[in-house]
Amino acid sequence: MAKNEFVKEIADIETDFPQWYTDVVLKTKLVDYGPVKGTMVIRPYGYAIWEHIQSELDRRFKQMGVENAYFPMLIPMSFLTKEAEHVEGFAPEVAVVTHAGGAKLEEPLVVRPTSETIIGHMFGKWVESWRDLPLRQNQWCNVMRWEKTTRPFLRTSEFLWQEGHSVYETGEEAEAATLQMLACYADFCKNVLCMPVLTGRKTEKEKFAGAVATYGMEAMMHDGKSLQAGTTHYMGQNFAKAFGVQFTGREGTLQYGYTMSYGVSTRLIGALIMTHGDARGLVLPPPVAPFEVVIVPIAQKKEGVLEATHVLKEALEKAGIRVKLDDSDNSPGWKFNEWEMKGVPVRIELGPRDIEAGKMLVCRRDTLEKAEYALGDVEAVSALLETIGRDMYSRAKARMESRIVEADTLEALLAGVEGGNFVRAGWCGERACEDKVKEFAQATARVFDETHTMGTCVCCGKKAAHTLFFARAY
RNA sequence: CGAGGAGUAGCGCAGUUUGGUAGCGCGCUUGGUUCGGGACCAAGAGGUCGUGGGUUCAAAUCCCGUCUCCUCGACCA
Question: Where in chain A is the domain with CATH 3.30.930.10?
Answer without folding.
Answer: 17-276
